[in-house]
Structure formats: structure tokens, C-alpha cells
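User: Could you go from structure to sequence for me? I need the amino acid at each position, not a summary. C-alpha cells:
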């Protein structure tokens, strides 16, 4: 009985994603470096397969840096609200780093993860080129 309860608990944890290691990335530019933790979804799994990559980004609405990925990522659940440090996907290949809190119109953004470093390095006007790499 105890064995079957332990087996069920391990299975439940594994299927909920809690047993999986948190994937982390490094985002670097001439303005500095930040790390980010990715959420677990089909879009982030596809993003990880593209890494490393370089993205030319531009400032948008003085709340975010945006740039195009080399190919689209799968669509997953979207949301309208975001907070400082959110990594998102606007369209299927439109990568976004939010450096301020806000809200987007429908259909919303796909959440890719969250910056754990000081995202304010991107809070300045003008374009920036970033390098995105997986952290092992």
C-alpha cells in the first residue's frame, strides 16, 4: 500500500512539472547581462532548440524591447497582463522583454519566462542587439 502511494505521488509530481529542472537562459547585450527562468510549455521547448541566437531588438511604447525570432514558436495559452521582467511572445515569432508593468490588447501574449536579473538595463530608448543562450 505504501509503495503504491509513493508511486502515485511521484507520478503526480512528474506530470505537474514540479519534478522538472527549471530551464534558465542568459540574455546579454552591450548594456549588460541578465538571467531568466523559463516556464514549461511547448513555446519555451521550441525556443530552447533555437539557442544560441542573436536578436536585434527595438524599443516599443517605452515599456518593452521587441525583436523577431528566426522562426515561429508554437501557440500556447495567452494572457493580457504582464509585469516587469516578463519574457513573452506577441506573435508567433515576436520575442518581447518587458521592463515595465502593463497590459496588452487581445489576443494577449504567450509567457515564456521571467528575468531574474536587473531588467532595467533595457529601460532606455533605442535599439539593442541581444544574445540569448541556454545556461547549463
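Assistant: Here is the amino acid at each position, in order:
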Amino acid at each position: 500500500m505504501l509503495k503504491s502511494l509513493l508511486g502515485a505521488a511521484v507520478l503526480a509530481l512528474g506530470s505537474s512539472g514540479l519534478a522538472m529542472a527549471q530551464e534558465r537562459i542568459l540574455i546579454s547585450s552591450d548594456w549588460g547581462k541578465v538571467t531568466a527562468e523559463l516556464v514549461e510549455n511547448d513555446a519555451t521547448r521550441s525556443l530552447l532548440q533555437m539557442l544560441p541566437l542573436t536578436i536585434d531588438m527595438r524599443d516599443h511604447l517605452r515599456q518593452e524591447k521587441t525583436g523577431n525570432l528566426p522562426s515561429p514558436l508554437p501557440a500556447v495559452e495567452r494572457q493580457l497582463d504582464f509585469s516587469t521582467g516578463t519574457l513573452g511572445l506577441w506573435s508567433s515569432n515576436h520575442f518581447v522583454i518587458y521592463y515595465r508593468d502593463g497590459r496588452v490588447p487581445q489576443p494577449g501574449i504567450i509567457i515564456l519566462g521571467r528575468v531574474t536579473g536587473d531588467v532595467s538595463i533595457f529601460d532606455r530608448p533605442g535599439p539593442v542587439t541581444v544574445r540569448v543562450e541556454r545556461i547549463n
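One structural detail worth keeping in mind: The helical segments are 2-16, 42-50.
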